[in-house]
Write a structure and sequence with these properties.
By secondary structure, the chain is of the alpha+beta class. Helices cover 21% and strands 26% of the residues. The chain contains 4 helices and 6 strands.
Length: 122
């Protein structure tokens, strides 16, 4: 089944003026424990670095094998309100490539639950 997300509507409305930044991660809490992704997911490949976080431009000049991988259809984890950690692999986005889906990808190794920022007054 195919569903349109908010980004597709924004791209339709704003055209080239819209920049889509995808967020991927390797593991963490969101707010349930989220295991490492299956090996065939893009998240697993992106998590194979020693970096805590980085920004990837799928359209930047890069070696041919990297460009090919970024343009190849893949799967990436997609968590929502019905996420079940026991069936992690079932929660994914597929049918396109990172280059199709995003203008940039922000990858972090470990996610944590959202928390309030403290407010300070000057």
């Amino acid at each position: 089944m195919t569903h349109r997300n908010a980004g597709s509507y924004l791209r339709e409305r704003f055209g080239a003026g819209h920049v889509s930044i995808g967020l991927t991660f390797h593991h963490g809490m969101a707010p349930h424990p989220v295991p490492a992704p299956p090996a065939e997911f893009a998240d697993a490949i992106l998590g194979g670095t020693a970096l805590d976080a980085y920004l990837l431009d799928p359209r930047a000049d890069s070696p041919a094998p990297v460009r090919a991988w970024l343009a190849t259809p893949t799967r990436t984890r997609l968590l929502g309100p019905r996420y079940d950690p026991a069936d992690d692999a079932a929660h994914h986005l597929s049918g396109g490539s990172l280059a199709d889906w995003c203008d940039a990808v922000l990858h972090v190794q470990e996610v944590t639950p959202a928390r309030s920022l403290s407010h300070t007054r000057d």
